[in-house]
Amino acid sequence: STPQPPRRGLFIALEGLDRAGKSTQIARLHDQLGGPSRTTLLKFPDRTTPIGKLLHSYLTSPQEQLDDRAVHLLFAANRWEVAARIRREVEQEGRIVLADRYAWSGVAYSRAKGLPLSWLFSPELGLPLPDLTLFLSLDPAVAAQRGGYGEERYEESGMQRRVRKSFGEVARVVSGSGANWRELDAGRGGVEEVWEMVWGAVRGVVDGERRQALNEIDV
Ligand code: NYM
Ligand code: MG
Description:
Layout: E1 10-16, H1 22-32, E2 39-43, H2 50-60, H3 68-92, E3 96-100, H4 103-111, H5 117-121, E4 132-137, H6 140-145, H7 157-176, E5 181-185, H8 191-207
Parallel strand pairs: 1-3, 1-4, 2-3, 4-5
Helix pairs in contact: 1-8, 2-3, 3-4, 4-7
The site of 3'-deoxy-3'-aminothymidine monophosphate has 10 residues, from α4.
């Protein structure tokens, strides 16, 4: 008889403002879920690819001029570069893929520059849909107190406030489309308290039922 593929894995995204604690929590999830032998940790933007190198240069050189729509398409293209890999690892290899930011950051950050929401979603349509998105919700004023922002483009309070508002719009559209979007209050307590919330939400989907194929983003 033909060999059965393993039970499919999972695709989980962490989202939030800069300094919301995503990287800390996702590193912990990676450990808890078995480390590199069972879990793949992705970060968007992936700055190692040719497109990612362009994005890195744009983010770190605030004097660089690039059209807002062109930037948006580059961020989306940087996800399409790994879309097939996400599908293969989850569906064929039974792995858990964790993403530190995803399409939702793409829409929220560009939306904060005033571009229309429907235009912003279009290059993300068809990408693998996460089984769960955890949005680490944090007041931008609290985020700013956490050791201050770095030097990159977008890391200033006016932009962060607009992004916070845009994430609210994204959350409505994405949850309205039936996707699994969970908002966690990342300002309630420290790393341990947030970890309890993160792990509680992830444990639910790890144990849950799922179809073999990942869904597609379709809002
Ligand atoms: N960012 C990230 C976008 O503007 N669009 C996207 O699609 C993604 C994935 O890049 N300030 C922004 C948000 C961040 C910046 O990400 C760099 P990070 O997680 O700070 O390295
Ligand atoms: Mg950052």
